[in-house]
Design goal:
The complex is a heterodimer of chains A (530) and B (370).
Chain A lengths: L19 H14 L15 E5 L8 H10 L7 E3 L5 E3 L2 E6 L5 E6 L13 H12 L11 E7 L2 E6 L6 H5 L27 E7 L3 E6 L12 E6 L3 H9 L5 E2 L4 H9 L3 E16 L9 H10 L2 H7 L31 H10 L3 E2 L5 E3 L2 E2 L1 E7 L4 H15 L3 E7 L4 H6 L5 E7 L7 H9 L14 H12 L3 H18 L2 E14 L24
Parallel strand pairs in A: 1-10, 1-11, 16-17, 16-18
Antiparallel strand pairs in A: 2-3, 4-5, 5-7, 6-7, 8-9, 9-10, 11-19, 12-18, 12-19, 13-14, 14-15
Helix pairs in contact in A: 7-9, 12-13, 13-14
Chain B lengths: L58 H36 L4 H10 L6 H10 L6 H13 L13 H34 L3 H16 L2 H15 L12 H29 L3 H8 L4 H38 L5 H11 L2 H28 L4
Helix pairs in contact in B: 1-4, 1-12, 2-3, 5-6, 5-8, 5-10, 5-11, 5-12, 6-8, 7-8, 7-10, 8-10, 9-10, 10-11, 10-12, 11-12
The chains are: A alpha+beta (530), B mainly alpha (370).
């Protein structure tokens, strides 16, 4: 069966000119005299869906920018999560594992083609996955894969040990399936030729992508035929672009901008919790943070509800545990939630030997209870939240200095031991299962830069091990509850609040549901407003 | 024969051929002359006016001078190339933090960092070697016209910064002449009265104190959001250039207003201007053909400095308007600690500034009364 393609002429593109000097001259002349004359791609008014997001295309490798092409429905993975976090078939039709859990077989959907009309074969998928897992930074490198081979038209993954979360890793953006023509001789990605309902028709450096819908062999064609993606790093600018009608879909809007947009009439704002939490990471090698009572006191002093209401503009964002409630499988109703109780916090400090000094700051053995909190302005709300916590901790007798830096500094200050506390934001959607980040942060022998320092729990490690090995639902549920319970009881990190994905739609389109794992913007489901 | 520069001796008796005036000698059309006054002659108590004799040189001498200017420009560019590159290298070396970590975060996302990926990048980029051999390698490549590849995208630096540079130049080609036109016209108009001069000073203070992002946001709020006439941000069409260009025009133009007003005011005190007015020339002609030429040197010099302001302001304006030019590329490169791109972008900007300064020097040397 032949694939059906939209053979309409491609939209105007921003093409790198062959002669830079000539291009400068020509464009300059146009720029000077051509006010009102369109030189480049269409704007929102031209029937092109304009999507603005903060993420630039810093390379074509799936490990670098796979998520951009996944979200734009250009690329697909073998497995995909639905909005309930349940893994569904993607490019694969079904998958099965042997009894020992070491061999996984993914059967591909029939009659699928890459954008260049070459058929999707098991060998092409295998070559792509093998290239990806050999690439630095790819999430597939965290999976104990021995080999990926093509057998009888299926993709077979052989593991060195049982790993039940393999499908979740195959649903990650680093595992997008690219066609053979995407690669050069050195297996570097030169262009994106994938299998999604949209194909790339133009790229403009790191900031712009243009796509065009393929016409599907069966079913209805997407209403949105052409898409222009633009990376706009500043959140307020993204909000203003929707406000002014220059963008149809703006994602990751800051709370203040979203609040302002909600008051306007020109656009619709949709928000949904996503698996990302703000928490205070701790250095448990530093006294008195090694004392659970002090960590509990720090947690009890935080007014999460107040901060969620006043700073984050969303009362539901206050975290009573690490993972947000929409991850139902991870929610144990019997687990006591985190609460705010300054009096209880003071009692705990006294129990730990810290009594208030003359200036209100707790002291023990002549030493004041003074700590440093690092945070970054990469996420603008973090310094404000840090100041609020500073006042609340001061109220129970803990003096906290705030140090502002870049989030990229956190791994460094963790490594050199200068971190005491750090207010950071952490995603649990690296793969569509929080276990990926939990494993990286609390279990991995070389933990990355986002967890606390100096904390290990045998109970948690065993539970993570069980979870990643077993496919038995009840065992997995028990393991999840153990993991969540240990994190809540021992507070290696102090949860503060959860993130919302805030998306604004222009009036030209009907809003669609947001994918909490951010694997898609739902462009194929978007309809133009009537 | 070359005239001495500076205050000329009262007894100088130069021939009319060697002297220049703004217009023709006495007896010609009075509407285009300064009454034939020998401006090379100094009158007691009045400021001197000394001319640079650009027409005195022969054609070959002119060519030789042009050749020398070109050689000077090339030398300056080469010196700037090395100096700016070395400075960027030194400054990025001096920055706190781990470059490999920053690059890894920019490549794969801060939350996907692993020790293995950071160490892999450290090895790939040679960051585990001392700075001296790394700088020597970079310098060697530079002399071959190669500034290397981006640490983040692994593409050649010129491929990465070419399109942003082109976009910024397009913006500058619009904003710079517009800022000169705006600054000169408004400056000359304001120079005509004391109130105008005060207003020019006020505008100068506003220009110095008003951040360009505030101007940009205000313009966007009015013309894009409230009126809906123009796009608030983005790029790809001529209309996307308008608001950033106006913002940059204001950034550079407002400063020029004050310089022009002061220079025009000073020039208007010169006796030749009094003569022009005594002849009954219309004020617009006095301003355009008599005051402006006298006020030109500082205005021209500052206009070219304005180009530097403009390139500097572009980094902020490009961010406000999500316009992916060289300024925002440079900011991104600094955040990602992408040293080759920082060096490439800075060198490109520095060469533009050096070229502009050389042009300013050339115009002042060969074409303008000092």
């Amino acid at each position: 069966m032949n694939p059906t393609l939209n053979l309409a002429p491609p939209m105007p593109r921003c093409v790198m000119p062959t002669s830079p000097a000539m291009a400068v001259t020509r464009r300059t002349l146009f720029g000077v005299v051509g006010a009102g004359v369109w030189m480049g791609p269409a704007r929102a008014q031209d029937g092109v869906l304009v999507v603005v997001s903060p993420w630039e295309v810093r390379g074509l490798d799936p490990a670098q920018s796979g998520y951009v092409f996944l979200r734009l429905s250009v690329a697909e993975t073998l497995v995909r999560p639905d909005t309930e976090c349940i893994l569904r078939p993607g490019l694969s039709e079904r998958w099965e594992t042997d009894a020992d859990g070491l061999t996984w077989r993914f059967s591909l959907q029939a009659d699928r083609y890459f954008h260049d009309l070459t058929p999707v074969s098991a060998q092409a998928v295998v070559d792509c996955l093998n290239t990806s897992r050999a690439t630095t930074g790819n999430t597939l490198r965290r999976v104990p894969i021995e080999a990926v081979v093509a057998e009888a038209g299926a993709v077979v993954v052989r593991l060195s040990r049982p790993f039940a979360t393999l499908p979740a890793y195959l649903a990650a953006s680093g595992s997008i399936i690219l066609g053979p023509s995407s690669y050069n001789a050195q297996r570097g990605v030169e262009r994106i030729v994938a299998t999604g309902p949209y194909r790339v028709t133009g790229m403009d450096g790191r900031h712009g992508i243009e796509t065009q819908a393929m016409t599907p062999a069966t079913g209805n064609a997407p209403a949105v035929r052409r898409v222009r993606y633009q990376a706009v790093t500043d959140g307020e600018t993204r909000a203003r672009m929707v406000e002014a009608g220059d963008a149809d879909l703006a994602v990751n809007l800051p709370p203040v901008s979203a609040d302002r947009l909600r008051r306007g009439r020109a656009e619709r704002v949709v928000s949904m919790p996503i698996p990302r939490a703000r928490y205070v990471a701790l250095n448990l090698n530093v006294a008195p943070l090694d004392d659970l009572r002090v960590r509990q006191a720090l947690s009890l002093a935080i007014d999460r509800a107040g901060a969620a209401r006043a700073i984050l503009r969303n009362p539901d964002a206050a975290a009573d545990r690490l993972l947000p409630p929409f991850l139902r499988e991870w929610r144990d109703p019997a687990m006591p939630p985190l609460r705010t109780d300054p009096d209880a916090a003071r009692r705990l400090l006294r129990e730990a030997g810290w009594s208030p000094g003359p200036n209100g700051i707790c002291q023990r053995d002549g030493r004041s209870l003074s700590l440093e909190l690092f945070t970054s302005a990469n996420r603008p709300e973090l310094p404000i939240l840090a100041e609020a916590m500073q006042a609340q901790w001061r109220d129970i007798g803990i003096e906290v200095r705030i140090r502002l830096g870049d989030s990229e500094d956190i791994p460094r200050i963790r490594a050199d031991g200068s971190m005491q506390m750090a207010l950071i934001a952490r995603t649990y959607a690296q793969i569509p299962d929080p276990i990926g980040s939990i494993n990286d942060d609390f279990v991995s022998p070389s933990p990355n830069g986002w967890a606390s320092v100096g904390w290990r729990s045998e109970a948690l490690e065993n539970a993570v091990q069980r979870y990643t090995v077993t496919a038995d639902p009840s065992e997995r549920t028990a393991a999840r509850q153990t993991i969540a319970g240990v994190l809540q009881a021992e507070l290696p990190v102090i949860p503060h609040s959860w993130y919302d994905q805030v998306v604004a739609f222009s009036r030209r389109v009907d809003p669609v549901a947001i994918d909490p794992f951010e694997t898609t913007y739902g462009i194929p489901d978007i309809n133009w407003a009537r | 024969m070359t005239l001495p520069v500076g205050r000329r001796a009262k007894t100088t008796a130069a021939s009319p051929v060697e002297h220049r005036s703004f217009g023709v000698m006495a007896g010609a059309d009075p509407r285009s002359t300064t009454c034939g006054v020998d401006l090379g002659t100094v009158v007691d108590g009045l400021p001197p006016l000394v001319m640079t004799p650009c027409r005195a040189s022969t054609r070959s001498a002119g060519l030789a001078a042009c050749g020398r200017a070109l050689a000077r420009w090339l030398l300056r560019c080469a010196a700037v190339l090395v100096a700016v590159g070395a400075l960027c290298f030194a400054m990025t070396e001096a920055l706190p933090g781990d470059t490999a970590q920053r690059v890894a975060a920019a490549r794969y996302g801060a939350e996907n960092l692993t020790t293995a990926s950071v160490e892999g990048i450290r090895g790939d980029l040679g960051l585990d070697r001392p700075w001296a051999p790394r700088f020597a390698v970079w310098l060697g490549m530079l002399f071959q016209g190669d500034v290397g590849v981006s640490a983040v995208t692994a593409r050649p630096v010129w491929t990465d910064i070419g399109p942003p540079l082109r976009r910024t130049m397009m913006l500058a080609v619009i904003a710079w002449p517009a800022s000169i036109l705006f600054g000169v016209v408004l400056g000359v108009v304001l120079a005509r009265s004391r109130a105008g001069l005060a207003a020019a000073q006020l505008l100068g203070a506003v220009a110095a104190g008003l951040p360009s992002y505030v101007t940009g946001i205000l313009l966007g709020s009015v013309f894009a959001i409230a009126l809906g006439w123009l796009p608030v941000a983005g790029y790809g069409s001529a209309s996307h250039l308008v608001l950033p260009a106006i913002t940059l025009t204001l950034v550079a133009g407002l400063r020029l207003v004050l310089v022009t007003a002061r220079a025009a005011h000073d020039a208007s005190q010169h006796p030749s201007i009094g003569f022009a007015r005594m002849k009954g020339l219309p004020e617009t002609e006095v301003a355009a053909f008599h005051i402006l030429p006298l006020a030109a040197p500082p205005v021209i010099a500052y206009a070219f400095i304005g180009l530097a302001f403009l390139l500097e302001g572009a980094a902020v304006v490009e961010t406000v308007f999500a316009y992916p030019g060289i300024g925002s590329a440079l900011v991104d490169a600094v955040l990602a600690r992408d040293v080759p791109v920082i060096q490439g972008a800075t060198i490109a900007i520095a060469i533009l500034v050096v070229t502009a300064n050389s042009l300013a020097d050339g115009i002042a040397r060969f074409g303008v009364a000092r």
